[in-house]
Structure formats: structure tokens, C-alpha cells
Amino acid sequence: MEQTVDFANYFCTYGYLYEQKQMLCDEIRMQAYYDAIFRNAPQFKDKVVLDVGTGTGILAIWAAQAGAIRVYAVEATDMAQKAQKLVNGNNVADKVIVMQGKIEDVDIPEKVDIIISEWMGLFLLRESMLDSVLFARDKWLAPGGSLYPSHARMCIAAISTETEERNKYHAYVNSMEDWNKFVPRTLANYGVDMACLTPDFDKEHADYYLATSVWCELKQADLLTDAVIIKTIDCNTCTLEEIKSVQHEFSLKINRQTKSMTSPKKGGGGGRGGGQQRNPQHASSDVKFTGFAGWFEVDFKGSTSQPATTNITLSTAPHIGYTHWGQQCFFFHPPVDPIDSDIIEGRINIVRRKDNQRLMNVEISHKVKKNNQIAKTVGAVQNNQFHMD
Question: Which terminus in the chain has less CB density within 10 A, N or C?
């Protein structure tokens, strides 16, 4: 993707304070980073730190306040100018060096001991800012250095949010009904038959309403299963190729009494903002299996050579509460009537879009089973394609 297009589509969004404020008001995000730095102040003391994508510079300021001897705060957008004001206003200009430019283009004059960054996108990998962090790691991190966060994992669970699924499907149906009235009306009034465009109109609206993931703020009651981990990443050692795609088989046991998502199981038989925003509510009766939800967790553990004094975890799971990342929901149609103790076997495949490496295509196939046999219910076997735009 050309740099000018990438800047227009991605970086320019973060050049506005209103976008930065949304993230700064995310208390779970802020507290996790604050704790990761100040509860590990001995790891930051007298260290050289690099903040990749510094935004307003708050992480760089915290690193300096925690004792870092020098902090390079790199920001691609004009927000760097605001970061400089904040650095000056908080009396750390003697320690924090703000640099405007993409991390791939700037020149850091020395090796660094710690790289800190808030690189995570929706469902972890949408936006792909991790690429830039790995670039910085490979070019500037000193031997034995560490990354904050250091580890990440992606999780999915089956969900039941029938109202949301029904609303999306009905919106699609209503748009087609409106088109089917528009076609004969246009022919009668203006003598032009638009019917030949019906398949194109259908494809556009099916893609928008039925094949696009949805930002959701789920509640614990929306979950039909425990979570499974579909991807783990060690930021200290992973390669770019390892984060370009996710392929994983999973097995989920339906349990309407799911209590906690704090410890997702391993998948495979054992266990910024995109899309439309909703706040789905769990149906009080006639529960349906309507799709899957994905979220992530990251850990601040440091590295083997420089382990953190206190391990901190930032989670975006439904039971945690609001974060600006929310959860990404993948709804399918028709929904499935679940039965307690049913097993959902499936496979998820996530790849980057060819036309925009920061966006993702997601394929999810599933089979709902009862007593090791495919359930005799509509929608028990499906394969669905989604976009994370």
C-alpha cells in the first residue's frame, strides 16, 4: 500500500485530539499501562526507552517519571506537536525527545533497553501496528532488552445476541425490499429498467450487513461458551510472518451458565474503531447461537533477561467492562437453536486484505454437534466469510 494512502486511511485519524481523548478516557487501558510502568519502575530506572506511536506522549512521560534516563517518543502524525507541548508542560523535556515521523523513517541515535507501545487494534491484529513495533525491535532494541507489552493472545467464544443478529438481517431484507419497489417505479416513471443491477445492489448490502464484523460491548450473559485461545504472540521473539495470519481449529462446549472468561482455554479440541457500534442484550428466552466474538489480552512481563517485577495484564474480555476496543462480533444467518452440552467444532482463518494490509478477512466454519453427531437443526453446519474494516 502506498504511503500516502496508508497515511490517509490510518495515521491521519490519530492526528486529532478527539481520537486521542477516546483512548485516554479508556480507564482499563490507562490503568494497565500506568501499572505496567510504575509497578515496574526498577526496570525503567536509568534505562533508554523507545515509545512507538507515542500519540499525546503520555506513555513516554510516564516512562520518564518512572526513572528512564532518556525516552524517544516517535509519532507519525502532527500529534507529535501536541506531545511536545505535553512533555514541556510536565517538565520532562530534559528526558523525552519527541520525533515526528514513521518509526521506519526516523533515526534513533542509540540502542534502547525498552520498547513500549500501545499497538493493539480491534481483535488485536486489525491495524497491524505490531509490524512497526517489530521493525523497531529488530533495529534498535539492545540485546537483553524487553517490550511492553511482551505477550499477546487472541480469544473467541460463541455468543447469543439474537436481537442484534435479527436487526442486521432485517436491515438487509428491508434494503432489498426497498430496491424491489424502486426498480418498477423507476421503469414506470422514467422508462429505465434497473433490474439488471439487482445482483450488484444485493451483493453490496449483503456484504455490508451480513459479512462485516461489528464492534460490540458484550455482557457476560451474551456468552454461550467459555473462550478459547486461537493465537499467542511473544513480542520479544515473534517474526512478521507469524503475525500475518491466524489459522486455528477450536472446540467450544455450549454452557448457558458460563460464569467467567478470565482463563480462556487453548483452542483446537481442548480447549481502532471499525464497523457498526451496538450494545447487544441477551434474550431472556429462546436463546440462539448467533455468532462468534473475538477479543484479546496482553501481558506486560518484560523479557527473559529483564523480567518485570510485577506482571500486568490488559484484557478486553466482556466481563472486564468497557474498553474502546470492545469485542468484534461475527454474526451469521440463520442462527442455531443450541442445546446444553452441544459442542461447536470449527476453524477460524484470519488473513490480511491484499488491498489494505491493516484490514483483515476472516473465515469461520463451524459444526454444531450433539452426542458426537451433527445436530439436526437449521444452520448447524456453516462456513461464513467476514471483513474487518
Answer: N
Catalytic residue among 75, 127, 162, 164, which?
127
Choosing from 2, 19, 27, 118, the catalytic residue is 118
Q: Is 106 helix (H, G, I), strand (E, B) or coil?
A: coil
Please check whether residue 96 is in contact with residue 121, taking contact to mean a CB–CB distance below 8 angstroms.
Answer: no
**Cα dihedral sign, 309-115-317-15:** positive
- Measured distance CA(76)–CA(53) in Å, rounded: 7
CB 313 within 8 A of CB 297: yes
The reply to whether 118 belongs to the active site is: yes
What is the C-alpha to C-alpha distance for residues 67 and 41, in angstroms, rounded to an integer?
7
DSSP string of 200-251, one letter each residue: HHHHHHHHHHHSB-EEE---GGGBSS--EEEEEEETTT--HHHHSEEEEEEE
**Residue 363 bears catalytic tag:** no
Which pLDDT tens digit goes with each residue over 215-271? Answer: 999 998 999 999 999 999 999 999 999 999 999 999 999 986 653 444 465 554 433
CA distances from 212 to 38, 83, 206, 361 (A): 39, 35, 9, 9
* pTM recorded for the entire structure: 0.87
H or E stretch covering 137: helix 130-140
d(CA 207, CA 311): 42
Residue positions counted in the chain: 389
Low-confidence ranges of the chain (pLDDT < 70): 1-15, 162-165, 256-286, 340-341
CB 214 within 8 A of CB 331: yes
H or E element in which residue 167 lies: helix 162-190
